[in-house]
Specification:
This protein is α+β, with helices and mostly antiparallel strands.
């Protein structure tokens, strides 16, 4: 009976309620790493689910422990807030107290992950180790390579 209830519940769940799974996270990491390699760059890459839990990570050659930790902070920030870390600096300036909130990172390189239809935020990607704009481009390339969106559908 419990199995039937679970199956019925899953069947009733809309496709837009997609969750970030390990296969998607690995595809994001591979896409980001391929993007970086093509540009002669090296990033530490972290992919988290919507709850900020690490699902996949890779430290490309040449990056130290600090870059990996920073990529995880960026990923958790965008999973929590739903917008890129590149926009958090402006948000800090315009929103009193935001700078002191949990999971605020004001350096580009964190990009939210939305479902393939762009309707549901399912996680975040953080990249670190290169210039912030390059970190953000790497994260976005990984998300696109996995067939997911880096912006909410409008």
């Amino acid at each position: 009976m419990k199995i039937l209830w679970t199956a019925a519940l899953l069947a009733a769940t809309p496709a837009s309620a997609q969750m970030l799974d390990a296969n998607m996270a690995v595809a994001i990491v591979k896409g980001c790493a391929a993007h970086a390699s093509a540009k002669g760059q090296s990033h530490a890459i972290a992919v988290v689910d919507a709850g900020g839990h690490l699902v996949a990570a890779r430290r490309m050659d040449g990056n130290g422990h600090g870059a990996m930790e920073f990529s995880l902070q960026k990923a958790r920030a965008v999973a929590a807030w739903g917008f890129p870390t590149s926009g958090m600096e402006e948000a800090v300036k315009g929103t009193p107290g935001f700078a002191d909130a949990a999971y605020v990172v004001t350096v580009a390189g964190g990009v939210p992950v939305f479902s393939a239809d762009g309707r549901t935020r399912i996680g975040g990607v953080g990249a670190s180790g290169e210039a912030p704009a390059d970190d953000a481009a790497c994260a976005a390339a990984g998300i696109a390579a996995a067939g997911l969106k880096s912006e909410r559908a409008r």
